[in-house]
Design brief:
The complex is a heterodimer of chains A (139) and B (114).
Chain A lengths: L1 E7 L8 H12 L4 H21 L2 E8 L3 E9 L6 H5 L8 H5 L7 H8 L2 E7 L3 E9 L4
Chain B lengths: L2 H8 L2 E4 L10 E4 L3 H4 L7 E5 L4 H10 L3 E4 L7 H9 L3 E4 L4 H10 L3 E2 L2
Classes of the chains: A alpha+beta (139), B alpha/beta (114).
């Protein structure tokens, strides 16, 4: 099964919609609730990242029997230094993002903590692709 | 700790979740930073927060938090209530500061997450 959701830069009222839908789908598939939580927390942080930094983007969720692959592609400023962005506490978020309760430099570390595989590719001035894989069987 | 007790200790009003009033929480966590809330791996937590927007409810949904106490008299919007009801959450609001609300609940036996 493949699901696709659109993301709009700056539209915080819709951030979390994809995570919410994926959560419902995984519940219906009787995936372990602890694994569902890890998946949706990572996806939600990733959605917030796109809404906070990019102009627009999309989420592709590929659900297989034993794993989920989440791909987020955005058109945006890109990440010039990915290892720096992965550091806890490093943030380039705007005051508006901080007002929403984010922007403390924990998004990417929280994503990494909650998925089995995380790959980030980015081109400055073009956009960022994030791919996250989580297996349903646990670690 | 029961919802009714949380309300008594913090003089909180129940905003929504009437049908879940018998729900109990085992511990409390106070934060305005949603990424910290998303790091919780404990169940049955009361979130005490002064951050009052739709993302607070979304965060609670993802973090499996079903009871939220808003402090400093924050006004909860109809969109927040709608999303909270969809997720069967209990929302409460108190005029107390976060420090006082957390202090009262801790003194009365609500355990910290860590």
């Amino acid at each position: 099964m493949v699901f696709r959701y659109e993301l709009e830069g700056g539209n915080f009222s819709k951030a979390g919609h994809a995570s919410s839908e994926i959560k419902k789908t995984l519940k219906q598939l009787s995936v372990d609730p602890r694994i569902i939580k890890r998946i949706v927390v990572a996806l939600y942080e990733a959605e917030v990242n796109v809404v906070a930094h990019a102009w627009k983007g999309e989420v592709l969720a590929e659900v297989e029997a034993n794993q989920i692959t989440l791909t987020l592609r955005d058109e945006g400023p890109g990440i010039p230094d990915i290892p720096l962005a992965m550091q806890e506490g490093y943030s380039t978020a705007s005051p508006a993002v901080r007002q929403m309760g984010f922007g403390a430099g924990m998004g990417l570390p929280n994503m990494k903590k909650n998925v089995d595989e995380l790959e980030i590719e980015s081109r400055v001035g073009v956009g960022t692709n994030v791919r996250m894989v989580t297996r349903f069987s646990g670690e | 700790m029961k919802i009714q007790q949380i309300r008594e200790f913090t003089e909180a009003a129940l905003v929504c979740g009437e049908t879940n009033r018998e729900k109990e929480v085992l511990s409390g966590f106070a934060s305005d930073l949603m990424s910290d809330v998303l790091r919780l791996d404990t169940g049955d937590v009361l979130l005490i927060t002064g951050l009052c927007n739709l993302q607070t409810i979304r965060t609670a949904e993802m973090a499996e938090v079903s009871c939220i106490l808003f402090v400093r008299g924050k006004k909860i919007t109809p969109e927040m209530i709608e999303l909270a009801n969809e997720n069967r959450m209990v929302l409460m609001t108190t005029e107390y500061s976060m420090f006082r609300a957390a202090g009262e609940l801790y003194l009365n036996g609500l355990a910290p997450v860590y």
